[in-house]
Structures are given as C-alpha cells and as structure tokens.
Amino acid sequence: MSEADGILRVRQPISVHYRWSAGPNATSHLQGLIEGRLIGKRCPGCELVYFPPRNGVCPKCARILADDVEVGPKGTVTTFCVVNVPFLGQKVKIPYVAAQILLDGADISMQHLIQECEAEDVRIGMRVEPVWKDRSEWGPTLESIAHFRPTGEPDVKLGAEAGAS
C-alpha cells in the first residue's frame, strides 16, 4: 500500500473460478480432438457440416445440429494473413501464416497456422494437412494440432476461380 496525494492504493491480485460445460454438441468434437480425430456436426435441415461446431445451432436454418461427421484431416487454404508484427509472449517465428482452412467434408473454415514452408509460398487453394503434437500433449483443444503443412497435392480452385476454368 502507498499513500500518494492522500489516495490510498491497494494492489490486489484477483481471479475468477468457474466451471464450463461443453454441452452435447461440443462434447463429441472435443473428445475427437483427444483421440486425434476431427469431428464436426451436420445440420439435419440444410445438411451443412460445421467444424468446429461452435454453438450447436445452424446459423443458416436455425435447426439444432445433429449427426457427428468426421472431417479432414486434409483441407484447403481459403484465405490467409502473413503476420510480421511481434507481440508479447509470441512463440512462432516471424513471419508466420495464419490461415482459414476448409477441411475436407466441412462447410465452414477454421483458423490455424501454416508452417513447414515459406510464408511467401502459401496461397489460396493450397492443400494442407495437420501436424499433431506428441500424443501425450493431446487434449480437448485445437492446440493438439501444432500447425498445418502443405501436402504437395495440386491446388484446389475456389469460388470465382473455379467458375473461370
């Protein structure tokens, strides 16, 4: 404590303890990650597959997501950002690539790192695959995947690019 200018100041660390339930839709997804599997959920209405199944309800038709669907493990880069700005606590060497990856069998992309190639070699349509951490480090988190790397497969044409051929 200090008294400066007649103001009493107290520095006190605080914390909040809480319990969180994954709920029925996220449980199979999180259990899949523990097992090294990528599990999404299918909408029974429009049949879109969501990975990860964030809220349990299809944003397109508002139906509760139902069936588990194993997706990937390979996917396609749909967009990306080359990061050149350092930040506190950074563990990845600059420059690095954060990308949106559409896993095979999924209808919504997820974000992850692309490594094992130069940042300037990453491109939209690039095929990638996950590189899992050591099995002893797997848990109910996408951090069980260290990063994605190029597969060497031919690029996939996406969106307007696909219609131009």
Characterise the protein shown here.
This protein has 165 residues and is mostly beta strands. 11% of the residues lie in helices and 30% in strands. It is built from two helices and ten strands; from the N terminus they run ββαββββββββα. It has helices spanning 23-35, 159-163, and strands spanning 2-4, 7-9, 39-42, 49-50, 68-70, 75-83, 96-103, 110-114, 127-132, 145-150. The strands form three sheets. The chain has a five-stranded antiparallel beta sheet, with no helix packed on it. The mean pLDDT is 90.
Distance between the termini: 71 Å
Task: Report the radius of gyration as a whole number of Å.
Answer: 21 Å
Q: Structural class per helix/strand content?
A: mainly beta
Give the tally of β-strands. Answer: 10
Shape: globular
**How many helices does DSSP assign?**
2
Strand content: 25-35%
| Average pLDDT over all residues | 90
- Please estimate the helix content: 10-25%
Name the helix and strand elements from N-terminus to C-terminus, one letter apiece: EEHEEEEEEEEH
Biggest pleated sheet: 5 strands, antiparallel
Widest sheet, order of strands: 8-7-6-9-10
Runs in which pLDDT lies below 50 for 5 or more consecutive residues are none
